[in-house]
Amino acid sequence: MSAPSNSNFSRRTALRAALGLAAAGGLAACGGNNGRGGGSGSGVSLTQYFHAYGEAGTEQAVKKYAKAYKDANVTTQWITAADFENKLFATLLTDNAPDLFEFHPQIQMVRSGQVADLTDIIEPVKDDFNPADIASHTVDGKTYGVRMIDDPQFFFYRPSLFEKAGVKVPETLDELIEAAAKLTTGKVKGLYLGNDLHAVINPMIWSAGADTLDDRNQIAYHTDGVVEGLRKMRSLFTSGDLLLGAPTDYWDPSALNQGLCAMQFCGMWAMPQFQQTLGDDVGVFPFPKVTADGKPSVYNGGWSMFVNAKGKNVDAAKEYVKWLWIDQKEYQEDWATSYGFHIPPRTSIAEQATKLKSGLPAEGVKLFNEFGHFDNIGWTQAMITALEDVFANCVRKGGDPEAALDKADAAVGRELKKLFG
Amino acid sequence: MSTTSELDLASPAPAKATPARSRRGLRGNSTFNFWLFTGPFLIGLAIFIYVPIGWSVYLSFFEARFTVTPEKFIGLDNYRHMLTNDDFVGSLGTFTVFAAFIVPTTWALSLGLALLVNRLRFMRAFFRSVFFLPTAVSYVAAALIWKMSIFSGVRFGLMNTVLGWFGIENIAWLADPNPPWYWLVIVSARLWLQSGFYMILFIAALQNIPAELYEAAAIDGAKRGWQTFRYITLPQLRATSTAVILLLLVAAYQAFDEFYNLLDKTTWGRPPLVELYLKALGENQDYGAGSAGAVILTVLICAVTLFQGRLMGFGRGDESK
């Protein structure tokens, strides 16, 4: 009896040993603290967050670049655009935070120690970057992000519809409102600015001759011109000539492409899709001036790559950022021009980007250079929300612009005091 | 071998005793068994409920921006900020309007459905399933269907298509707060989502009403229909109605998904949880102020729930009725 008993024990032991070895083997494959999860090559494992771009092929492109990197195994999380910021900020508080992520420059992230100083990798090529892009990522002489793409935003329109309605390209906000009225027919609305109008907040402020903050980081948006602009925007909102409640937001070209409107505020990223659908029947113009002393404006949005300063592999993440967004010019041009159209922030790449040299893309670049405004690193998310509330309360809801701006002043002032004392 | 054989031979007695010992063991170690079965749940409760609540209370006294391990103690400043914040106070007003709509309508609709389905003799299971199925749909999915398909503001939205047949212009259901059509969208979505669940509760309660009551009432001359409903069915459903109203009220306080997905970042139609989410967890990352708001809201929910339970006699025994 003992023999069989021993024999059973031996078999169990052998089975356990085999399972243990298999498990150990499996762990070893992703172990050794190389974090490679069975991937090839050597080095650490990095995670990067990207918001889901709307242009086909972008996810595959990001993953292709990551796969080509040999010194680390880079995993990409492609996150639904609407959830991106929420997920990013929440995860940055945990141990599961990404090693690198794309976002916009915000001083709050610098002050909170969330983003690493990238001055050392940018400094050697600093002069090749658009100076405004460097300035918008710099705090106290240190640069905290590498710009990947610049995204000018303006109005796209159908010249054929303009001609039919006898409308010229608007040069003032009043003319834009008049044009929207003339272009509105039974099934087509004159203009689409997105469902919440958030995209045109900053352009309207700039076109009114104001700014979000001034050079001393003081409130600069509370001006008579902005109040006048808000009143005009309210008249546009209630005119019945604005497309409201569209299934997709301003960043998606569907509204103009599906014939829901004659003009749409959108970004240069969607230009290939507009051209594909509308052919030559598409043009662009900047946000027109709001007041007599205002000036047309274009928001030069875009995305930048940041390194999580509290990550476990800061140096490796910086190396990857340097490799991809500084050294690999071919990938940078591919990223900027092969899917949607974006302007490469590197002057040397922008100059050789043939797709942007003629036709409508060249017109977009011209507007970018002539009327562009870049991100202000001191303009934080809480301040952005405060002005979004202004638009919600007085443009969409019909409240008093002065009262709405006063309320925003209190919220923005509270933020400024915390950030700059 | 021989030792084993001897043990084997002696086995009948222990074999008989083993089950008895097991039973005695279960009885004798009742404390151990209690912790064995409830322990994991208590640990989960502590980790996922009580520790976060405690941590939230802690954060509410600190300047906690972009961090959940703050160092700067600021006393009651966050509470002061939240209680003087128009948006947060306004969100309590939004909740009041929402609760005033949704609690009575859901109660009435689910009771009505229960009465209809309970009487059915034909395809009863089918109709119960039809009304209950929306309960299994996620609020996010339903909100997106409502927003992008049924109540889309363009001409091919379902509601606008129907209105178009009568020559009515497209309505921007969610983009324009004047008039506040967004309430129709939100309330209809929630009614569709939750009425089926409460219908099941009412069906269970209806089936517990003794048939003798109706028979006795019939003998006494009560007419079927409104009279029996008013004087027998409704009083017999009192306990269930109280529970349903309590659950509906708490659910209304916790409303988030459909508001967040339908209205995005408007300044109207923000219930308290959306307001707190935007304040703390969204892009603003102000965990101190958000936590203070959460504490205020928790105290408010507890107070209202206790008051409502007391008002409606929830938890009282039959003898106290």
Describe the structure in your own words:
The complex is a heterodimer of chains A (421) and B (321). Chain A is built from 18 helices and eleven strands. Chain A is an alpha/beta fold. In chain A, strands 1, 2, 3, 6, 7, 8, 9, 10 and 11 form a nine-stranded mixed β-sheet that branches. In chain A, α2 (58-68) links the parallel β1 and β2 (72-79). In chain A, α8 (173-183) runs parallel beside α10 and α10 crosses α17 (381-396). By secondary structure, chain B is mainly α. Chain B is 72% helix and 1% strand. Chain B contains 15 helices and two strands. Chain B has helices spanning 2-9, 12-28, 30-59, 77-83, 86-119, 124-132, 139-150, 158-165, 182-207, 211-219, 226-236, 238-253, 257-263, 272-281, 287-312, and strands at residues 62-63, 72-73. Chain A binds chain B through residues 1-2, 85-86, 89-90, 92-93, 108-109, 112, 114, 187, 195-196, 198, 237, 243-247, 260, 381-382, 384-385, 388-389, 392-393, 396-398, 407, 418, and chain B through 1, 4-5, 65-68, 86-87, 148, 151-155, 157, 170-178, 264-268, 278, 281-286.
Summarize the structure.
In chain A, 46% of the residues lie in helices and 15% in strands.
**Average pLDDT for all residues of chain A:** 90
Radius of gyration of chain A: 26 Å
| Percent of residues in beta strands of chain B | under 5%
Structural class of chain B: mainly alpha
Structural class of chain A: alpha/beta
Assembly state (oligomeric): heterodimer
> Order of SSEs of chain B, N→C?
HHHEEHHHHHHHHHHHH
Compute the separation of the termini of chain A in Å: 84 Å
Strand tally of chain B: 2
Shape descriptor of chain B = globular
Count of helix runs of chain A: 18
Largest sheet of chain B: 2 strands, antiparallel
Element-by-element helix/strand order of chain A:
HEHEHEHHHEEEHHEHHHEHEEHHHHEHH
User: What's the alpha carbon Rg of chain B, rounded to whole Å?
Assistant: 28 Å
